UniProtKB/TrEMBL annotation:
<dbReference type="InterPro" id="IPR036866">
    <property type="entry name" value="RibonucZ/Hydroxyglut_hydro"/>
</dbReference>
<feature type="domain" description="Metallo-beta-lactamase">
    <location>
        <begin position="34"/>
        <end position="236"/>
    </location>
</feature>
<dbReference type="InterPro" id="IPR050662">
    <property type="entry name" value="Sec-metab_biosynth-thioest"/>
</dbReference>
<dbReference type="Pfam" id="PF00753">
    <property type="entry name" value="Lactamase_B"/>
</dbReference>
<dbReference type="InterPro" id="IPR001279">
    <property type="entry name" value="Metallo-B-lactamas"/>
</dbReference>
<protein>
    <submittedName>
        <fullName>MBL fold metallo-hydrolase</fullName>
    </submittedName>
</protein>
Amino acid sequence: MNKCLELLNQLPMVKKITEDIYLLSIPVPFGMVQANCYLMRGTNGITVIDTGVYSKEGMDIWNRIMGMGIAIEKVVLTHYHIDHLGLARWFQEKHGVPVFISSVGNREIKRRQKKGYADYVISLFKQHGCKDFSPLVTEYDSYIYDFEPDGIFEDGQSVRLGDEIYEALWTPGHSADHFCFYHPVQQIMIVGDLVLDKIAPIVLIESHHDVNPLREYFISFEKVAKHSVSIALPGHGNVIENVYKRMEEIRLGHRHRLEEMTAAIKDEAKTSLTVSEEIYGKGKALKSSTHLMATITRFIYLESIGKVKSQIIDGALFYSLVE
């Protein structure tokens, strides 16, 4: 195994984090451009944290790694988004590698199997003033979500990654099923898409289960802040050495946008689409649906803390300040 891991260092897409953890960067043909997968060394083989998107390029990279003689014991998923779960079924079917996901994640993949995701998001955006929107649905969606996980984990449960025991921490916000994994002795936390080094992760509404995801996101930050973390391993971009500072930067960014939004509706009620276009630029809310989604989740949060109120006008939600 040691000799095989030495070979990993020769691959340009692999970076050594510790003696037992390697970062593998998998290209993504949309959004974040690349995804971080982590290889956790163990006596029985490598534990893979997230697989990358379903693509020939991704499969070729993994086949190359396994072709070096590196045994993969299991796959463990931080959350169910396609750039993290994409090759889970492929690992399971083609290579007999067991796949583990949280119980909440299992609920989400079963929901995706029913193919109601696109309709829900289209309806959500229409409710917030956008009548012309098509969410990203790849030709592989029906394949990648159609599998049964081999194991389930819960919040607070001990999970073995490689030879080390990590605590599974449920940290919703970016997705309803998002999990981090924490090693208390080494003070390492795998943070997935909860915290990224350069950009603020999008906070999403993806089903009726997502009642107030921004509030959940802030609570997840508080949960992480209770742990001593020396190294945070994100789902995209660079390793984060000061996760507390980065979380505060993200929090301040949300606070700035929340203030912009309340200022935008000071004189009249507006939809999320209108406010999003005023803040980000006309047309950008549609070109980048993340802008509109961020505005929607922030308005829901503002209403939950009593800063704004909503009313339905001509079938769309309009927000105004609470006097």
